[in-house]
Every structure is written in structure tokens, then in C-alpha cells.
Amino acid sequence: MDNWDEIRTAYQVARLGTVSGAAEVLGVHHATVIRHIDALEKRLGVKLFQRHTRGYTATEAGQDLLRVAQATDDQFSQLSARIKGRGNEVSGELVVTTIGGLSQLLVPILAGFQAEYPDVQLRYLTSMRLFRLEYGEAHVAIRAGSPPQQPDNVVQPFLTLKSAIYGSREYIDRYGMPDIPNRMAGHRFVGLDDQASRAPFAQWMRETVPAHQVVFRSGDTRAVRQAVLSGVGLGFLGTYESTDGGDLVEVHPPLEEWESRLWLVTHMDLHRTTKVQAFLKYLKDHTEHLRDEVE
Amino acid sequence: MDNWDEIRTAYQVARLGTVSGAAEVLGVHHATVIRHIDALEKRLGVKLFQRHTRGYTATEAGQDLLRVAQATDDQFSQLSARIKGRGNEVSGELVVTTIGGLSQLLVPILAGFQAEYPDVQLRYLTSMRLFRLEYGEAHVAIRAGSPPQQPDNVVQPFLTLKSAIYGSREYIDRYGMPDIPNRMAGHRFVGLDDQASRAPFAQWMRETVPAHQVVFRSGDTRAVRQAVLSGVGLGFLGTYESTDGGDLVEVHPPLEEWESRLWLVTHMDLHRTTKVQAFLKYLKDHTEHLRDEVE
DNA sequence: TTTTGCCATTGCATTTCCGCACGGAAACCG
DNA sequence: CGGTTTCCGTGCGGAAATGCAATGGCAAAA
């Protein structure tokens, strides 16, 4: 059963009883309506209407079509309303992907967003592999490093995360304050597990700190922070996560070359939807203080 | 939501994931598919798909469309199967209209037909007004008189009903055997109520029998027969209904000019359907003896 | 890294489809 | 009963949709 438009035409004829009326509703010429009906009947091999001078009367087959097409018309109308409305309401799934280690920063914001828009189902994905926006795997991605420049993606600067080297007070009391990067001998470090990490401070560490001095590695930044707090060694922490709780000492202040630049990336097709826009706005509003602090 | 064909195109794209695949299934060119999608998205104001080099991925809106269109496709497939099959099966309503007075002859045949095709719901209509085949009011009509020649109707000869004048034995014993049409004075007649009846014997009676001698009139042929049987007077009865039951005497044998010719009329559009054909065949087969007897 | 293959896209030629206008028939209406 | 309206049916010219072929890009395979 191809050519759904002919069914739609036949539906209007069956509903209204005349070719002329159907043509007016459909916004086409009545000749077109006749041709559609003729073609459809020829294909089906069954007469859908009985023609007489006052109009068309649906046969049993035509009445069957009327019922089915009526339902279809309703379905499509509802679909159209849903689709058109969907762009203007904040509901449904919202998939956010990010690099690991931002949970501490992002999750409270996400929770606030969800509270403000209760119809949204949030999915917060942190995965090794890069989720692909062009396949619709996520609405918003937070990427690090140099600005991504996929053609169909909209990229906005998000935050510049400053990192500094911290140590626990306990560690400093025991081993003394190191002079970085000049005299680091004898000191222990905590670092990222990923040897290929493109995080600026990770690269700096690979180049500057001898590998045997890195006595603890983890892919989880929470674990890294915990390790530093526990006095395992010195390590990079984001300035935003150094303040709360624990007894940390800044061993070396943030350097510009250690900064991680974060980008908000959305696919062009989704970027302009109200849902995504609402999320981006909320995200920016609730990281304002970080941005100010960073500047 | 006009243009259902574009929805169908989008449905195939959403289902298959590629424009090329959809084009192949739909039997059109890739370019056409792309243009359909573009037009549909433009009209809805929402992107249905995210384009990437390996194909199209449905957005939420596209997935919504996929679900709805899937259901529609199923519905239409079933509709098509029903409509195509309907022509080849004997079921559903079958409307037969006829002139009054044939019930005694027809109803047993209709009953037999229904028994043979249990899926058929019969409607047997005898009405004053002529049902109009071109409005689909009936599948089969039985008409009397000269052959109807509506343009879109298929007309076949059905039966030639012979009529003769009968009287009850009781009546003959009392009033003697009349010599028709020469000496009818003093005799009583039973006739049709319809003064404008175009039945040949009715016309003959209007011309030949003085009105005051017609002492009983009815529109119902059963009543007429009952009246003749009861000895009210002489009257025309069909030869087919004179044989069974009662004690009737043929006062005057059938004349050719009294014959009523019956026609089977069907609308062209319905005539070739299996259902109508089956009914016509059954009707002819079970009136074979009448036709033989009549010839 | 190179190659191959699949896929979307776009300008151009063609065909199909559509709108227009006219004709004809039936019903409606004084 | 004749004028009027309201339908449907059809040939023709134009426009829109479609098909075609070339292009370019990306990804998986070699």
C-alpha cells in the first residue's frame, strides 16, 4: 500500500461525500481528487466509491478505508502537535556527557536543574569513549582541551579549570615544603592513571616528575584527591575542589599552562531547542561564581 | 499535517537509518527522499534526523514519528489486504430490494443462500420507493416491467411470472364457472389496491372488470391469495403460488399479456464482486425449475 | 597509511502531476 | 417547465516533483 496521499484524498471524499468538497478541504483541484481516487481504485482492484451525479458514496471498502484513515488522521494530528510542541517545552530525556572528574562540580547543578524542570529525565554519562553528538547519543557534551571543531557542532567556552599542586598538612609537616619545579627530589606524587592523558597538568607531570616518584595513580579524580588528603603524596587538584573540607596546603599556585579549558558542545540540530537552551542557561548561571573566581 | 507521503518517507528513513535504504524500499531516488525529509522538517520546524556520513539518526521527534507511522503502516497493510480480499470473499452485508409480493418465492431462497454463506448478513427490503443502486442503497434489486436501462446498471432477465385467474372451489360451486372475458356479470373479483399498478394483469383488470365488481383490494399479494382462497372472489395469482395448499380452481389459464417480466439489476461497480456474483448464481440455480416450468 | 566503498548532497534534464477551462448531466426552484 | 446551481469528467499547458549523474566526505578495511 504505497502512496499514502491517495488514501488521505479518498478519506476526505468518503468523509464529505463529494469530490468538490474534498478538493476544497485538501486545497487541490477537484480533477486531482478524481485522479487520486481512480489510481487508488485501480491499484486495489476494488471500487471504493459509487459515482453519481450528486457526489461519491463510499462502498463497503470505502467505508473501511474511512474508518482506518480517520484514525490515522487523528494520530498524525496528535503527532504533529507533539513534535511542534516538543521544541518549546522542557521535558523528556536530556543526555549530558562529560569527561570524568567533574561529577563533584556538575551533579549538584544537574540536581538543581532537574528540580526546576521536573519533567526532564537526566542521563549523566561519563565514559571512556567519546559520545558522538552527530549520532544523537547526547544533547550536551562537555569536552576539554583545544576547542573542538566538528562542522555541525556548536561550541561555547564553558569554564577554565585552574589546577594547583596540593599536599596535606600532614605530608608537608613530615617532608617539608617542596620547591617546585626546582627541588622535588625525595617527594612523592599522586597522579592520573591515564598515561596518554591530554590534561595540561598531566603532560607537565609526565615531563617534569620522574615516574618512580609517582607512587599513586588513579583514573578517578575523587580517588586522587582522597590520596592527597591522606598524605600519600603531592598532586594536582582543581582549585574549585580544594577549598571544601580536608586540610590541604597549596604547594604551588595555579599556572596558566596547567589550565584545562572546558567547552560546551551541542549538535546544531539540538542546540536551538528550548530544552537544550534551558539547560545551557542554567549551567552558565550556576557556574557564574566559578568563572568570576577564575578570571 | 498534510502530505502523508512525506511521513511515509520519513518513516522508512527512521526505520532503516539511511536515505539510500529508504529510497530503495520506497522505489524512488535518494534525492527524493532527502527532499521529502527537508520539506517535512521545514514544515514542522523541528529536525527529525541528525545527519552524519553514515546515514540518518532519528531524533526524539523522529522516533515519535517512527512509532506512529509504524502503526499506520500496519493499519494500511491490513486495510489493503481486507479491501483486496473483500472482492473475493462472500461476507458482510448483502442488500436485496424487490417489489412486494415475492417474499413467498424469495425468502426461502435467501434463507438457503444465507445457510450456504454464513458470513453474509442479509437485508431484504421491500419498500414503496425505489431503492437507488447508484447510491449504494442495495447490491441487488429485483424490478418488474420493461427492462430498466439506467446507464451504470447491469440488467439481466430473471423470471417471467405467469399469472392466471383463480377462484376457490367453494366460490365456483356457488357462482358457477365464469366465461372470461365474455360473461363476467355477477362475478366478484379480488384485486390489487394500487390503482396505478403497472402489473400487466392489473392493467387488464382495470380495463376489463368494472370497478364495482372488485369487492376486495389489497396491496399485499398474500392477502389477495387468502381472499381468493376464502371465496371472496376471483383473482389473479401467480402460477408459482397457486399450486401449494388450498383448493383452487383455475378459472382462466395464463395469458402472455398477463405475464410480469422480472429483472435482476445490479450496479456496475458491484456486479462483478464475488459476493454479488455468488448471490446471482444461487438465485438463478434455485429458480431453475420455475424458469423451466414457465418456458 | 592507503584504498575502497558507502552515503549524502547538488545542479540539471525530464517526466509526472496538477490546475484550468470547458462540457455535460442531474437535481433544485420558483 | 426552463433557468440555475451543483456536481463530475476530460483534454491541454505549465509547474513542481522526480530521476540522473557527478561530487565530496567519512569510515572501515587492507
The poorly predicted ranges of chain A are none
> Hey, which two chains have the biggest interface?
A-B, 48 and 49 residues
CATH topology descriptor of the largest domain in chain A: D-Maltodextrin-Binding Protein, domain 2
The structural domain count of chain A equals 3
**CATH architecture term of the largest domain in chain A:** 3-Layer(aba) Sandwich
Assembly context of the chains: homodimer
> How far is the first residue's CA from the last residue's CA of chain A?
64 Å
CATH superfamily of the largest domain in chain A: Periplasmic binding protein-like II
Instruction: Report the β-strand fraction of chain A as a percent range.
Output: 15-25%
Please compute the radius of gyration of chain A using only Cα atoms.
Answer: 32 Å
By DSSP (H or I, 4+ residues per run), the number of helices of chain A equals 12
Main sheet summary of chain A: 5 strands, mixed
Give the class of chain A from helix and strand content and strand pairing: alpha/beta
Name of the CATH class of the largest domain in chain A? Alpha Beta
Let me know the number of strands of chain A. Answer: 12
Sequence of strands across the biggest β-sheet of chain A? 4-3-5-12-6
Task: Give the CA-based shape of chain A.
Answer: rod-shaped
How do the SSEs of chain A run, as a string of H and E?
HHHEEHEHEEEEHEHEHEHEEHHH
Work out the helicity level of chain A. 40-55%
Mean pLDDT of chain A: 87
